[in-house]
Specification:
The structure holds two protein chains of two kinds. By secondary structure, chain A is an all-alpha fold. Chain A has helices at residues 9-16, 31-53, 62-81, 89-105, 113-120, 134-167, 175-212, 218-251, and strands spanning 21-22, 29-30. The longest helix of chain A is centred in the C-terminal third of the chain and has 38 residues, at 175-212. The chains are: A mainly alpha, B mainly alpha.
């Protein structure tokens, strides 16, 4: 628990759930989310690209074998689900899985650790887990949405896309209903994608904070929850990636 | 939990990371993996070929061994035959030589016997003459009787 001035439980919780923000209104920026997600991504992807540059088709080193295992696993998922030809899908799936996994893993750092250290340096708030920030999850899911729409147009052409929008699933006579269904379906996709990740990680973080409030009892409780949470961390990263692949494959296959 | 410009920032991060992955991470790794796949496939094929070749070589070597054995047996048989022949020839030659030696020896013996006989003959004649001399004392004319004695010698 943060020390110093007397804190109520709710103040403690609110403190932990407040982003480090600069700016006002819409143009405010959550620096903590941007910095942590950016740093994790840079370390992971620049590191991976350096490793990939030295990748050898001969006997791979341990690190290369690990990364290859990871990316070929993701590539297999893509191949199983997505049958189009876009070269974007596999890199996108790799990015999503690795990045989300790393950001979720920040949840395993004890809740007070980073805020207290940075507090000593004069930083008032710091939320360490970027995926508990809906800005990030929506930023990702809306990007996926844009890719999905563009891919739909590219694969089916404007006519084909519109034909699908107005005739599936009930045929041309029910065009307005079809359009409505399609709108609901497509809007639901990015929202469910981002809220699922956000909700899971936010709730997990909240449980960690509540456990941290229990005083001595947090010791036997934090470990099991952390162990359990490892499952959620991996699962949510996988689900986000998998659903992205599914949406993109739906966008590039006609619905009959 | 308010939506603000952070969303745009995160979308930019997302795009940057996808770009890095698409340009620098995935293609080299995919290439390395497919190259390795080919390498392994080639290696397996080469191994299979090697095994096949080994089999063939084994068969060939067995054939060669069998041929060599047969040839060796043939050579040994020929050598034995030749050996027997040579022994036979040697025996023959030895026999001829022996016959020659025997013949020579016989001839020599005959010659020596002849010689001995001749000597004996002359000695007998002398002895006979001496005996006759003893018997006849001086009555005998050696010259007159020499002819008769020679005829006698011839008869002996």
């Amino acid at each position: 628990m943060a020390s110093g001035e007397p804190l109520t439980s709710s103040a403690y919780i609110v403190h932990h759930l407040t982003n480090l923000t600069v700016g006002q209104g819409f143009w405010a920026l959550h620096l903590d989310s941007l910095i942590v997600s950016g740093l994790l991504g840079l370390v992971a992807f620049v590191g991976m690209s350096m490793l990939a540059r030295n990748a050898t088709p001969g006997v791979p080193g341990k690190m290369q074998a690990f990364v290859e295992m990871l990316v070929s696993f993701i590539d297999q998922q893509v191949k199983d689900t997505y049958h189009g030809k876009s070269p974007l899908v596999t890199p996108m799936a790799i990015t999503i899985f690795v990045w989300v996994l790393l950001m979720n893993t920040m949840d395993l750092i004890p809740v007070d650790f980073v805020p207290m250290l940075l507090g000593l340096a004069g930083v008032p708030y710091f939320k360490v887990v970027p995926t508990t920030d809906p800005n990030l999850t929506f930023g990702m899911s809306l990007s996926v949405f844009v890719v999905m729409i563009v891919m739909g147009f590219k694969v089916k052409g404007f006519g084909g896309f519109m034909h699908e929008v107005f005739t599936v699933p009930f045929g041309a006579k029910m065009a307005p209903v079809n359009l409505l269904f399609r709108l609901i379906e497509d809007i639901a996709k990015p929202i469910s994608l981002s809220l699922r990740l956000f909700g899971n990680m936010y709730a997990g973080e909240m449980v960690f904070i509540l456990i941290a409030l229990l005083g001595l009892w947090q010791l036997p409780l934090a470990l099991p929850w952390a162990l359990f949470h490892i499952l959620i961390i991996t699962l949510q990263a996988f689900v986000f990636m998998m659903l992205t692949i599914v949406y993109l494959s739906m966008a590039s296959e006609s619905h009959g | 939990m308010n939506i603000n410009a952070t969303l745009i920032g995160e979308a930019i991060w997302f795009a940057v990371f996808i770009w890095i992955t698409m340009k620098y991470v995935w293609p080299p790794l995919a290439k390395a993996m497919s190259d390795r796949q080919k390498l392994i496939a080639d290696g397996l094929a080469a191994g299979e070929r090697g095994k096949h070749e080994l089999e063939l070589a084994g068969k060939r070597s067995a054939d060669a061994l069998r041929d060599a054995k047969a040839k060796a047996a043939e050579i040994i048989a020929a050598a034995e035959k030749r050996g027997a022949q040579m022994v036979e020839e040697a025996k023959l030659a030895a026999k001829v030589e022996a016959d020659k030696v025997v013949a020579a020896a016989k001839a020599e013996i005959a010659q020596q016997a002849e010689q001995a006989r001749a000597e004996l003959r002359s000695r007998v004649a002398d002895l006979a003459v001496a005996g006759a001399e003893q018997i006849l004392k001086r009555e005998v004319d050696a010259k007159a009787h020499a002819e008769m004695l020679t005829a006698l010698k011839q008869e002996l």
